[in-house]
Write a structure and sequence with these properties.
- With 243 residues, this protein is of the alpha/beta class.
- It is 26% helix and 21% strand.
- A seven-stranded mixed sheet has the order 3-2-1-4-5-7-6, with helices on both faces.
- The longest helix has 13 residues.
Amino acid sequence: MAGLALALAGCDATAPKLPEKPSEAKASDFPVADRPVATIVSARWSTEEARDRLNESEEVMDGAGIAKGMTVADIGAGEGYYTIRLAQRVGADGRVLAEDIVPEVRDALARRVARERLDNVSVRLGKVDDPRLPEASFDRVLMVHMYHEIADPYAFLWHLRPSLRPDGLVVVVDANRATQNHGTPPALLRCEFEAVGYRQVAMRPMPSAGGYLATFQATGPRPEPRAIRPCRLDPAAKAAAAR
């Protein structure tokens, strides 16, 4: 994205990844994101039929390497488009945890899960700065068209790290546009993840899902909240974002 100057935090990509323990941290311990935050306008990004016609979920799950027997978290699950299809992909020996921060949305999805008898799915209410995922549990954490709605990305990603298994990946699908326009520029996404000690594994176009698919892996020790160096928009980019 033109005019976007980012201060990248370093990380040690060669250090072994060990399971991390959750710990308490206050919201005030983390830096504030220097970017606009998109409002949550709907639990539905598009109709499920339209998305299936584009083969969206299959391409995303293939790109994320999701296979039978895996344990996957669907963050910002909404009405459950991915939750339902992830449950089918991982099979009876796999598990899916669907998370949302809106109680009414969480409750509606829980009813759908019960109605469709998805015994390998559980539903959880998260927080705006903490998805509240169980420790060392997930092969993949999926965030589709919702990262730009995270108001406290450093706290969110910091709290997320302990939930990953040693080889687990965070998978982000988003559009390449400004955050206030319901997207995340790839350079900004990478910078915010690297600031919390993740490395980008891959980035690929994903036209069927309206943008790109990026994967990240936690590396090295998790930084102390007050040691996180936030990404900064340069003045020109900040002025453009305000318009």
